[in-house]
Amino acid sequence: MSTLHAREPSAREPHDPAGERRIRILDAAERCFVRSGFHRTTMQDVAAEAAMSPGNLYRYFPSKDAIVAGLAERDRGMVQEGFGALPSGPDLLSAFFGLARQHLVDEPVEKAVLCVEMWAEATRNPAMSAICRDFEQEMRQRITGILRKAGTEEHGADAEALTVLIMVLADGMLARRALLPDFDPGPILDVMLRLVEAARAGRFDPTRGDRPAPSQDHP
């Protein structure tokens, strides 16, 4: 999900009061969800956090589900921007892991708390479940495409299976960040990169486990 800090509009962007109010509401909702949980947070709570009347809030978002849909839409835009900025060629993989580090390691821990809260709500809320499922599918397609472009299948590794492994590790990192104050996700991300590099070199296939390095003829 999104970061928990309001974004300053660019000086070159036209003034958009309605858009600014939507951003204010979404930022306020994120803070409320982290502090009190999605289920306990009311629209009145969000309105108070955003310093506006409930009636004004309902003009922009008719329900909590609509707010979550707005958060998901904003996150999709950020994901598209981040992936769209990745370079092609030999720097693709390192740039991708730089993007992963930004979201999994460098973001404030509140983002991880918000993700876990949304996952929990998705187990009982069909609208939330659909949002999480759609986001998961989009991320899976994007990461698989990156791994293929980076050459992970040149030695027979399954890019889709490798993507699932990466996403499972990433979800675990977010969950442990939310639950364990002293958890450092950096080393796990380094292991993830080494696994991908091993797949590119033909030493690892997530569908079969470790494989010995290719034999070399010696004189």
Explain what this protein looks like in three dimensions.
It is a single chain. The protein has 219 residues and is an all-alpha fold. The protein has 9 helices and 2 strands; from the N terminus they run H-H-H-H-H-H-H-H-H-E-E. A two-stranded antiparallel ribbon has the order 1-2. A hairpin with a 3-residue loop joins strand 1 and strand 2. Mean pLDDT is 87; it is low at 1-11 and 215-219.
> Roughly what percent helix?
55-70%
Alpha-carbon distance between the termini? 56 Å
Physical arrangement of strands within the biggest beta sheet: 1-2
Strand proportion: under 5%
Structural class: mainly alpha
- Mean pLDDT comes to 87
What is the fold's blueprint, element by element?
Blueprint: H1 17-36, H2 43-49, H3 54-60, H4 64-84, H5 92-106, H6 109-122, H7 126-149, H8 159-179, H9 186-200, E1 204-205, E2 209-210
Antiparallel strand pairs: 1-2
Helix pairs in contact: 1-2, 1-4, 1-6, 2-3, 4-7, 6-7, 6-8, 7-8, 8-9
Give a quick set of tags describing it.
219 residues, mainly alpha, two-stranded antiparallel sheet, 2 strands, 66% helix, 2% strand, disordered N terminus, disordered C terminus
Summarize the structure.
The chain is mostly helical and 219 residues long. 66% of the residues lie in helices and 2% in strands.
